[in-house]
Amino acid sequence: QLQENQDEIENMMNAIFKGVFVHRYRDAIAEIRAICIEEIGIWMKMYSDAFLNDSYLKYVGWTMHDKQGEVRLKCLTALQGLYYNKELNSKLELFTSRFKDRIVSMTLDKEYDVAVQAIKLLTLVLQSSEEVLTAEDCENVYHLVYSAHRPVAVAAGEFLYKKLFSRRDTEDDGILKRRGRQSPNANLVKTLVFFFLESELHEHAAYLVDSMWDCATDLLKDWECMNSLLLEEPLNGEEPLTDRQESALIEIMLCTIRQAAECHPPVGRGTGKRVGSK
Length: 278
Fold this sequence. Notes:
Residues 21-106 form the SCD domain. By secondary structure, the chain is mainly α.
């Protein structure tokens, strides 16, 4: 009897889905399209056994191309709710491979709010599986740390930090208590210098620092470590910094001190609503 009741309810749900949702997710009114996507996101979270599969997910994937920003935004927030739950990751693999390129392209959306949520979604995808995003996908997000729009840059800074800086080789207490050149931050500071030099935007260190300030404050304020990398002799087997790398580290260090003292974003970085032309 329980099985019969469950079957009956699922048949009703299916009828409602086909009779209402399938027609209304393409409604002429953007607000109705947005409501449809928001609701299907809730259904997939609440009843993933029935709704979290590709025959339902495809509607969210298709709607990511909607011409209205508010609808695209609902797609991304619905997906964030799913990717946030690691237990659902296996059910999202096919969707990720099929629509990943679209999500990456949305990081350049003309609506800033959509671009921010696309980056946040990719950060969750990154945490669910390291292998899904290619080096090219990641680089498309990395360069946004230099964006003039601060929320986009901060979201990209968090993505960059999770990808390149959040791994610790060891959690041994002895290692974590070391300071200066021997601290765990030493390699992370070097990684920051290498990234800055590779990005070839050498006049924009203040933008990079500001982008990562919220998620990597402890690293960016480890001036003792930065000083020792500049002043002390390299450890055994350690590559010394080149003159160019030392200059970049000094530039980054100055920007972190200025950021700590002044507590505001660099000139030219704001929080306006729309992106101008390229």
